[in-house]
Amino acid sequence: MKKILAAQMEQGSVGISCGLEYTPGSYATNDEIVELCKVVASYDGLFAIHMRNEDDRVEESVAEAIDIAKRSGARLQISHLKAQNAANWYKAPALLRLIEGAEAQGVDIAFDRYPYTAFSTGMSSFIPLDKRDGTKDEIIARLKDSQVSQQIGEYAMSRIKRLGGPVNVVVTSCSNDHNRQFIGKSLEECCKMTGKDPWPFIRDLLIEERVSVSIIGFAMTEENASMFLSHRLGMPASDGSVYSPEGALGQTMPHPRSYGTFPRFLGKYCRDEKLMELSKAVQKCSSFPASRLRLKGRGSLIPGYFADIVVFDPETIIDTATYAQPHQFAAGINDVLVNGVHTVSNGMALESRGGILLV
Predict the structure, then answer these.
(1) CATH number of 2-115+221-295
(2) How many C-beta neighbours within 10 Å does residue 316 have?
(3) Range 153-162 average pLDDT
(4) What span, in angstroms and rounded, lies between the C-alpha atoms of 101 and 12?
(5) Mean pLDDT of the chain
(6) Neighbours of 113 (CB within 10 A)
(7) Rounded to an integer, what distance in angstroms lies between the CA atom of residue 272 and that of residue 124?
């Protein structure tokens, strides 16, 4: 693995990332990750981590990420920092103290956060890790086994309870036509529609959809989002995916962050809530992340740099995508240039394409 990673770094990769809350990343030991991060560190690369836990054990998970960075020497980027579920909201200041303490000890560390109070993940996250192992067929077999299913159900319902109940979980994607009626509905609404209790509904839907169901969970606070986004080591990031209002990509109900992250950050948090000066907000969206990724010639308006430019109106820029209607482009963005190619004019997308691989 170290040889493969070194070869990729030689070819221009900026680092490695891992999702320790999901299989198969959850099976990686710290020692294994440290050895890989030592390779990354030798190239001045970045280690980006989706932590093992973002709720009840979030402090331990931040400490784990910091320990990996200390032992390996890799630069650390904590992805979408959060303290999830009401019982953990008070932990946000402690997380920042851990991060600031690591920086004081010489760790090159920063973090990002999306400007929303809901997360997005797979419904399979309601299955404990030891029951999530193996192929989809093996997972489905466990869901169909009455005894094992009961154990999974107890775990799932404990997680849903900590989220605040079925009303705070919304189904956002299904592939089977007869299940599309549930898209955009909360678990509470789905249960009323089917006459099922939450776990039987979840179990049956996971079986029918072969474990591939996406959800949104409302589990965070605006206060913490503001705290993280305004911190000098924090920056906005969508944690989203690529969508289009048309075609197959427009048939789901994704998290609005995929359309609205940066306009929301600039409009709501910078302009309306006055968390920071506009110049600082722009820096958090441009030169700061570019420096973290070591992108040469990008992130600033400097002669000789690549012309990646967004022309927006600071008085009107805002997200328009919502949880109910996510496929909506932002307001207040007039023009966009990508590598000097005009791709958006007067708020309308053009046919021209200027994107290239960044590695």
Answers:
(1) 3.20.20.140
(2) 14
(3) 98
(4) 31
(5) 97
(6) 25
(7) 37
Question: Quick one: tokens of 185?
Answer: 């509905």
Can you give the pTM of this predicted structure?
0.95
Q: Which helix (H) or strand (E) holds 198?
A: helix 198-208
User: Which residue intervals of the chain bear CATH 3.20.20.140?
Assistant: 2-115+221-295
The CA-based diameter of the chain, rounded to the nearest angstrom, is 66
Classify residue 325 by its DSSP letter.
S
| The pLDDT of residue 236 is above 80 | yes
Rounded Cα gap, residues 70 and 50, in angstroms:
17
Q: Give residue-wise pLDDT tens across range 278-306.
A: 999 999 999 999 999 999 999 999 999 99
Confidence of residue 249 (pLDDT cuts 50, 70, 90): confident
pLDDT category, 25, cuts 50, 70, 90? very high
Letter string b/e over residues 205-220, b meaning 16 or more CB atoms within 10 A of that residue's CB: bbeebebebbbbbbbb
Q: What is the pLDDT of residue 252?
A: 85
Q: How many secondary structure helices (H) and strands (E) does the chain include?
A: 12, 12
Where would I find the beta strands (DSSP E) of 269-358?
A: 309-312, 333-338, 341-345, 348-349
* pLDDT tens by residue, 123-133: 999 999 999 99
Phi first, then psi: give them for residue 73, nearest 5 degrees. 85, 5
Three-class secondary structure assignment of 228-284? HHHCCCEEECCCCCCCCCCCHHHCCCCCCHHHHHHHHHHHHHHHHCCCCCHHHHHHH
Of 136, 160, 121, nearest to 19 (Cα)?
121
| pLDDT value at residue 251 | 83
Residue 91: per-residue pLDDT: 99
Q: Helix, strand, coil: what percent of the chain each, to 5?
A: 45, 15, 40
User: Distance between terminal CA atoms of the chain?
Assistant: 20
